Amino acid sequence: MALLQLLFLVLISLSSFTFATRTLNALVEDPSSQLQYHNGPLLAGKISVNLIWYGKFKPAQRAIISDFVTSLTSASSSSMEPAVSTWWKTTEKYYNLAKSNKKFTNPGLSLKLGKQVIDEKYTLGKSLSQKQIITLASKGEDRNAINVVLTSSDVVVPGFCSNRCGSHGSSSLNQLNSKVKNSKAKSYKFAYIWVGNSETQCPGYCAWPFHQPIYGPQAAPLVAPNNDVGLDGMVINLAALLAGTATNPFGNGFYQGTAEAPLEAASACTGVYAKGAYPGYAGDLLVDATTGASYNAHGANGRKYLVPALFDPATAVCSTIV
């Protein structure tokens, strides 16, 4: 069973800028080594999630992602349970746990949808390096923000579809602009995320369970809740990376294993979406009676989403909301 489970995990691609996506490791059983806090800073206060759209995305596709980000806050989310905002509350437990460290004075984290930047002309080409991903991320805000780069299905990124579906990390201003002379500005770090649309390149790898898997048990794919396999897959990966960014933004927050290949809040639970999950089976999900779509969370504007299980530091198990 453990061997099959490895087939649904994605390697962490780590550069000097990138911390984590999914990984081919598994949680060890010793609770003392599970997602330890490494005493680093966590994101604090009101943080804008800025979306940088690179390549061709339809307005309806952009709405799927922007509504998901809006859904993370209870004030803007659906009143129906289980809700995306309820799922996100698990990350608060990490902040509460960190407060046991006397040096930790973080007031908590509140996310909101920020600005959106649209680049439909492929200004950096259709093959992007990690450095170019960071350049695109810099088009968002550089303070109190998570800048999310979303690449369209015809954009190639190193490692995409072979060992990762997205990544998160941080960059300092001097890495973005060597001409910055303010020493304080040089030392400032901002968090970023990259997620690719796998619709044409590897939906069986990055959009499972909404597409037949490339490896492992060949169960029938589920119906995507927003009727877009690529974008619904992007939501899953974005959700996982947002959780990783909140709890390990700079590589010294909560994780298990080495800093070069950390397991984080969501990557520790890859392939689990509801109770009863096992390799090749996402779990006992909710099903829309009209469309037949599978989901586990309600979101803003009547949306339904599939979000990954998160490792609950209070119970030391992968926590699902259905």
UniProtKB/TrEMBL annotation:
Keyword field: Apoplast, Secreted, Signal
Main localisation: secreted
Signal sequence bounds: 1-20
Taxonomic superkingdom: Eukaryota
GO CC annotation: apoplast
Compartmental location: Secreted, Extracellular space, Apoplast
Family: Belongs to the EXORDIUM family.
Protein name stated in the entry: Uncharacterized protein
Protein source organism: Daucus carota subsp. sativus (Carrot)
